[in-house]
Amino acid sequence: MKRSLKKYGSLLFIVFMTFLSFWYLGREESVMGMVAKIPVLMYHSVSDSTEEMYSVPVSKLESDLKYLKAQGYESITCKKLAEILKEGKGMPKKPVIVTFDDGYYNNLVRALPVLEKYDMSAVISVIGEETKRYDECEDRALSYACLNSQDIKELIASGRIEIANHSYKMHHQGARRGTMQIKGEDGEKYKEVFCEDTKKCHDYILEKCDYTMTTYTYPYGQITESTKAYLGEMGYNILLSCDGRINFLDDVTLPLSLGRFNRDGRASTEEFMRKSGI
After folding, report:
1. How far apart are CA 125 and CA 104, in angstroms?
2. DSSP characters over 241-258
3. Residue 214 DSSP SS3
4. In the 8-state DSSP scheme, what is residue 107?
5. Cα distance between residue 74 and residue 103, in whole Å
6. Residue 255, preceding bond cis, omega within 30 degrees?
7. Which residues contact 228 (CB under 8 A, 6 or more apart)?
8. Can you give the pTM of this predicted structure?
9. Burial of 175 from C-beta contacts in 10 A (0-12 / 13-18 / 19+)
10. pLDDT, tens digit, 9 for 90 and up, residues 98-112
11. E-assigned strands of the chain?
């Protein structure tokens, strides 16, 4: 009886391992054995001196980047991360991703010089309708103006900035909160609305800047589970949320959703880095 049970158990183990092998082989763009801790930092506007929840003084941005360098962190973009995950190699020992949401003009004027000073890269997420608006006006107010197409091309030309899709016009709080599905909204209708908006921003940046975006930043971080599949179908590899969590990557599949820590301009560098797990 014991021999039969032992034999039966062995057969079950073999069947299970065979199934597991086929399951892994069927995972598209999966990475075997990749383990990494990746904090993602989320900035918005960069001010001259204002300290607010979504505005950090340029002096504190510099303090943050200086701190990261001193601790041995190496910045990568989301495009670079996707490339590393696909190839299964090349991950820095201490990676960090620096992001800027909403595409403020001050990201070019104030943030880029600091990134260059510390030889760091960043991801800047632009809102399509805002880019178009500033393509059609001369407003260059550093406190609130957004990047126009020429600004975006200048950032891309620097070689250290990735541009991400922050929706075309879903960065609003109304009946639809960001990209969220409205209660009672038909699933197919929701897919059509979301995909059309995403494509409109994607196509505008491609036309005006000759640049293909592959990272999607959810407005307000409000993720609807079904959109992950839609974005994957449209060629988006990395999805940025507002979840305050550190990312531990192990055998991941693209598209990959990452958590981020908001940089409150009122906090010190040490407080922010401690909160971010750095």
Report:
1. 9
2. ------EEEES--SSEEE
3. coil
4. I
5. 23
6. yes
7. 239, 255, 257
8. 0.86
9. exposed
10. 999 999 999 999 999
11. 35-38, 40-43, 45-47, 55-57, 74-75, 95-101, 122-126, 161-165, 215-217, 238-240, 247-250, 256-258, 261-262
